[in-house]
Amino acid sequence: MKTIEQLLDSKNIRVTAMRLLIYKFLAEKQVAVTLSDIENAFDKADRTTLYRTVKTFEESTIVHQIDDGTGITKYALCEKGCNCDIETDLHLHFHCNNCNETVCLTEHKIPQIKVPNGFISEDINLVVKGVCDKCSGL
Amino acid sequence: MKTIEQLLDSKNIRVTAMRLLIYKFLAEKQVAVTLSDIENAFDKADRTTLYRTVKTFEESTIVHQIDDGTGITKYALCEKGCNCDIETDLHLHFHCNNCNETVCLTEHKIPQIKVPNGFISEDINLVVKGVCDKCSGL
DNA sequence: TTATAAATGCACTTCCGTTGCATTGTATTT
DNA sequence: AAATACAATGCAACGGAAGTGCATTTATAA
Predict the structure, then answer these.
(1) Which value, in Å, is the radius of gyration of the alpha carbons in chain B?
(2) What is the pLDDT of residue B44?
(3) Taking all residues of chain B, what is their mean pLDDT, rounded to a whole number?
(4) Domain covering B4-136 in this structure, CATH number
């Protein structure tokens, strides 16, 4: 089990108090969060710092960006089974129209998508919208 | 073959010069357009008018909105084979990372996506990113 | 033709993402 | 340990896009 410090170190990211806090916050969350979510969790910190921290994490594939169609970029930790740096590892995201939360369904791989001749597929973004398990009551 | 006037009439949308122009503009385009694209095409018209016109078209399922991950909302006519009002009719969109254009691949239906128990799927947004046929040269 | 309601245009606001720059903090070298 | 170099942080501001309120114009109906 790696400590957060060791993880950041292995990615050549300087360990700071702020970054540890943000990482822990992301780790606690089970859903993808917006920059505003992080902002609200850390009143003292500046928006820019949070923004740049997340971007740093993103570049080092510690978090991945999610575009769930709400128009607001969300972020989630690349945890167990999510190797964002590997192109073929694509999982889908589920956006709940009720609670407005977006979760990563890492265990659900995206099926092969065929595109017409001449088109080259490099990346796939798949967002399923509906009602999540917590809201459906099923 | 319906005229545009007849189409708008059938959807209970008042026929105006502006709306006819915008419809024709969308019909000519083979790719999804942003509001700015429309804005640039009609210098005289106000952004708000264009915005509201597109929204009106959207509500009446004359155009459909596309979120291709660029962060900017795009719109495209619901033409032949695209029945946006029917939930099951979901086609995929292709976004070219080279020319930045987004096209509707209406003939390519989205495969059945399985979601975990408790989750209810209502809508699916699938965007494939890569290189389009015009840019690939294949 | 007049009354009614919708469409348009203008101004403005809000929100998110992003950048520049000064300042603080961390690490490294002597 | 002090000095240096560089990265991280905080503050301010910008820009683009979406959206709203209100006055005015235009179209439909009585």
Answers:
(1) 16
(2) 87
(3) 89
(4) 1.10.10.10
In this structure, chain B runs to a length of 138
3-state secondary structure of B128: strand
Token pair listed for B105: 């691949």
State which residue of chain A sits closest to B98, comparing Cα positions: A120
pLDDT (average), residues B44-60 = 95
Cβ contacts of residue B103 below 8 Å, gap of 6+? B30, B31, B32, B93, B94, B96, B132
Percent of chain A topping pLDDT 90: 74
Unique residue bearing structure tokens 């795009």:
B74
Whether residue A98 lies within 8 A of chain B, CB to CB, comes out as: no
Q: Which residues contact A54 (CB under 8 A, 6 or more apart)?
A: A22, A35, A38, A63, A75
Q: How many residues does chain A have?
A: 138
pLDDT above 70 covers what percent of chain A?
Answer: 91
Name every chain B residue with its beta carbon within 8 A of the beta carbon of A69: 67, 125
pLDDT at position A28 over 60: yes
Q: How are strands ordered across the β-sheet holding A91-96?
A: A102-109, A91-96, A120-131, B120-131, B91-96, B102-109
The distance (Å) linking the CA of B80 with the C1' of C12 is 40
CA distance A3 to chain B (A): 31
pLDDT at A112: 84
**What's the CA A45/C1' C23 distance, rounded, in angstroms?**
15
User: How is residue A15 written in tokens?
Assistant: 């360990």
**Which H or E element spans position A56?**
helix A47-59
Instruction: Say what the pLDDT of residue A107 is.
Output: 82
